[in-house]
Structures are given as C-alpha cells and as structure tokens.
Amino acid sequence: MIDLYYWPTPNGHKVTMFLEEAGLKYGIHPVDISAGDQFKPEFLAFSPNNRMPAIIDTEPVDGGTPVTVFESGAILLYLAEKTGLFMPSDLRGRKAVLEWLFWQVGGLGPMAGQNHHFGIYAPEKIPYAITRYVNETNRLYGVLDRRLATHEYLAGEAYSIADMATYPWVVPWKRQQQELDDFPHLRRWFDAIRNRPATIGAYARGEPFASRPAVTEEGKKLLFGQTAAGPRLT
C-alpha cells in the first residue's frame, strides 16, 4: 500500500501516473498547498522541504518498517525499482532514463514553473522575466521535439518514468505561452501519453481537488513568500 500525499500539480500527477500504470494500491492524502497543509508538522516529518508529493510505502520490498520518500523524481525512481517497471535493467537503457528524468527535474520543471509564476501569479508583470522564461520553455520544448524525432519515447522505444515525469509539465502548454503544434514530434508523443488509460485515470483521481477556488492573496504568501524562518503570512 502506498500512502500518497498529493495535490493536482504537475509534480503530483507524475506519481499518480506511475501508480495507475503499475496497478499499485494507493490512497491519496490531499495536501492543499494554498492552505498551508505542507507546513503541518506531521507532513514535515517525512517531507522536510515542505513540498508535495511525498509517499509512505507501508510494504517495502525488504519487509521492514515503512519507507518515506519525498521529491517527485526520487519517488518515481523508488517506485520503478520497487516494481521493476518503467526502468530498463541494462546499463545504457537505465542511463538514458536517468538522463531525461534529471533533465526534467532540473530543467523543464523549474523553468516552466517560473514561466507560470511570472506570467500568472506575480503581482507585478515584469516583461524581462516573462520573456526570459517563455523563451527558455520554448527552447526546452525544442530539445524534446528533436529527441522525439528519432525516438518513440524520451529514453528510447519504451515508455518510462522519464516520460511520466515530463508529460505533466507539457500539459499546461497554453499557460506557458507555447504552441504545441509548432513541435510535431512532441505533439505526437504528447497525444500518445494523453490517451493512455493510466494517464486518464491519474488525472481523474485529481479532479475532486482541481475545482478549488483561485489562489487567494494569503495563499500566494504561503506559496511564494517563504524564507528559512518558515511560513510568512503578513
């Protein structure tokens, strides 16, 4: 059983996509990030970066005490190793998956996240910042498109955790001021993953939480105003 601490963001969707593909039994514990649930002591006990998703595996493969994992990329890698799914066992195949997984967590996610922030949430619209992150997102889409021109999936011919990590960050392409049809190979890959039954099921699991009200000003302070001192509400 996997206890999943989750909110329907791109990083949250990564994990439900894997769990649905693998058919693992899991339960969702919502972490409303605009309400400050990520700062609750019981959550920080196993997710010290006050970010979701995080998991507790109550049945680890070694038969020992429950295992906690935070950070979405680490969760995908942990689950792939637990199940033996969506991660090649050969040296070169594994290397390719890890390259693209790290590319997403170190590149596409942070850059698209800043794109969202300055284009949608920032109280002051700063043209330089918006242009900077829209252009960088566009560059990264180009990297994906060139890779997918010669490979069915990011790591080769087999669907992997690298694809699961990347797909949710392309879903909001309109918010990122991109045009997906400008990238035909990326569009082919995107449509193929979107139509997978597990992807449909994963996004359906998030729907009860997705109809939340718009982020309030207090919620923005929680999401964007943190320092080492902790939650800042004023």
UniProtKB/TrEMBL annotation:
<dbReference type="InterPro" id="IPR010987">
    <property type="entry name" value="Glutathione-S-Trfase_C-like"/>
</dbReference>
<comment type="similarity">
    <text>Belongs to the GST superfamily.</text>
</comment>
<dbReference type="Pfam" id="PF00043">
    <property type="entry name" value="GST_C"/>
</dbReference>
<dbReference type="InterPro" id="IPR004046">
    <property type="entry name" value="GST_C"/>
</dbReference>
<dbReference type="GO" id="GO:0016491">
    <property type="term" value="F:oxidoreductase activity"/>
</dbReference>
<dbReference type="Pfam" id="PF02798">
    <property type="entry name" value="GST_N"/>
</dbReference>
<dbReference type="InterPro" id="IPR004045">
    <property type="entry name" value="Glutathione_S-Trfase_N"/>
</dbReference>
<feature type="domain" description="GST N-terminal">
    <location>
        <begin position="1"/>
        <end position="87"/>
    </location>
</feature>
<dbReference type="InterPro" id="IPR040079">
    <property type="entry name" value="Glutathione_S-Trfase"/>
</dbReference>
<keyword id="KW-0560">Oxidoreductase</keyword>
<dbReference type="InterPro" id="IPR036249">
    <property type="entry name" value="Thioredoxin-like_sf"/>
</dbReference>
<protein>
    <submittedName>
        <fullName>Disulfide-bond oxidoreductase YfcG</fullName>
        <ecNumber>1.8.4.-</ecNumber>
    </submittedName>
</protein>
<dbReference type="InterPro" id="IPR036282">
    <property type="entry name" value="Glutathione-S-Trfase_C_sf"/>
</dbReference>
<feature type="domain" description="GST C-terminal">
    <location>
        <begin position="90"/>
        <end position="214"/>
    </location>
</feature>
